[in-house]
Design a protein that fits this description.
The protein is an alpha/beta fold. The chain has helices spanning 13-23, 67-82, 101-110, 127-137, 149-159, 182-194, 196-202, 212-218, 251-256, 271-282, and strands at 3-9, 28-34, 52-54, 87-92, 96-97, 115-116, 119-121, 172-174, 178-181, 226-227, 231-233, 261-263. It has a domain at 3-112 and 230-281: Alpha-Beta Complex (Spore Coat Polysaccharide Biosynthesis Protein SpsA, Chain A), CATH 3.90.550.
């Protein structure tokens, strides 16, 4: 089993080093996409290990814009061109494993061929879609760099009909994080490279990274082997579309989860929860 761990990072190099350290083993290589706005020099210490690589074709990312989709595609493209991996596991620099690296590798061995990406198909009766339908089926101009773009957006959505699904795709979504096989990653890259209507549609979706990959997989031959993603997130106290920052009081809920990873953590807010989880999972050393 060989795993490429793709990590999106833009801050907290010390925390990123801790994440790499706790996952480091022979079966895992690390690929870091560092936001292009950030100076790489701050993260040089992460590259001291011979299984840590920085994505070369970096993107200046902005939350909820198509830039995150482009950064993901650039990263997947570099990884699949490097060598054969069984899985590409996509997480952020503010994630932590909540199972030991031994357990993570063994889990993927036992479930080899399963695509771990949450795909909730559009339905007016689905609770998640009731809240998120407008993000997809109304025009969102957050990618534009012109004055009064949101006034224009409002006017366009008043005078135009509901947006139509591209090429008959069933729109699916929920989360940008996934753990997929290399074959599935290649399928996603090809779909984006060859389907201009699909890409154009998602350029006007708010938070397109939470929909486009899920949609491609849901409408693909990989659909039948799909399960929910492997990341625990607490949305109970979400603020402006961001999940709760996990703290020491959340420890028991986190550890009780059947997920393999959790997010998000911030060492500038609560280092103690990071330490406690690391101590918990490092008791079982990788053999």
């Amino acid at each position: 089993m060989k795993i490429a761990c793709l990590i999106f990072a833009h801050k907290n190099p010390v925390q990123l080093n801790e994440l790499i350290e706790v996952l480091d083993c022979n079966e895992i290589d690390f690929y870091i996409h560092l936001d292009k706005k950030v100076k790489k020099k701050k993260f040089d210490s992460c590259e001291e290990k011979n299984n840590v690589f920085f994505i070369e074709n970096r993107v200046s990312t902005k939350w909820a814009t198509f830039s995150l989709v482009q950064a993901t595609i650039n990263s997947l493209r570099e990884i699949v061109n490097k060598q054969k991996y069984d899985y590409i596991n996509f997480i952020s620099g503010q994630d932590l494993p909540i199972k030991s690296k031994t357990d993570i590798v063994q889990f993927l061995k036992e479930n080899n061929g399963t695509e771990f990406i949450t795909t909730i198909p559009f339905s007016k009766s689905n609770e998640w879609w009731i809240e998120n339908e407008r993000r997809v089926f109304k025009y969102n101009f957050q990618n534009w760099k012109i004055p009064f773009k949101y006034r224009i957006q409002k006017l366009v959505n008043i005078i135009t009909p509901k947006r139509e699904n591209p090429n008959g795709y069933i729109i699916s979504g929920n989360s940008q994080w996934f753990c997929i096989t290399t074959n599935c990653a290649k399928y996603i890259i090809n779909a984006i490279d060859t389907n201009k209507k699909l890409v154009t549609f998602f350029k006007y979706v708010w938070g397109a990274d939470e929909f486009i990959f899920s949609t491609i997989v849901y409408n693909s031959p990989f659909k039948q082997k799909t399960k929910e993603n492997l990341t625990y997130v607490d949305w109970e106290l979400q603020h402006n579309g961001h999940p709760k920052t996990l703290m020491i009081d959340d420890f028991e809920k986190i550890i009780a989860s059947d997920k393999l990873f959790a997010r998000k953590f911030d060492n500038n807010i609560d280092q103690s929860i990071i330490n406690k989880i690391k101590n918990k999972i490092q008791i079982k050393e990788y053999v």
